[in-house]
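Shapes recur. Our protein:

. . .
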Amino acid sequence: MHNLEHLFLVGEFAERSRLLSGLTLEQVTVRPAGTAHSIYDELWHLVGYQQSIIEPSDAPPGDRYPTAPPEHEDEWHQLVQLFLTGARAAADLGQAPARLAAELEPGVTLADELNCVAVHNAYHFGRSLRCASGSARGRPERQMRRECEYGARQFPPEPGGPAPRARVGGICRPSHGSPE
């Protein structure tokens, strides 16, 4: 298994398809007290960023989060499928070393961007699990936003703790900005 498959689909926590299966529209649209977004909102945001790297376009960036919840459960299932398809495409890029090494801009390779997306995905899956638990315990929302805005590069591991598996190295797309 390539590192990207581990990061995007199966590693570090439960397999993504398993995490996203069996959820109802009611479950994915609830916003527990103390949380800014629902599970649907988090996945919608995550998919938008992931797709901007997997299938870049010249279109201006849209909203960072949906402006309305889905009306039908099928919309949730379509979003899950879009995420899993994009995650599989990202993982498959691990089989193309020359493509991973290609610079997208000076000093930034596709591998750098994919590592940033993997960290971003993990962050938002964590937020989704927080929503799913119905608990807003833990770090204050302000700190969580700061972590998303600046990415893992600003938050090194604890002394003596394990090294992160997907180190961004200070490279994140500046157009991503901070979440709302």
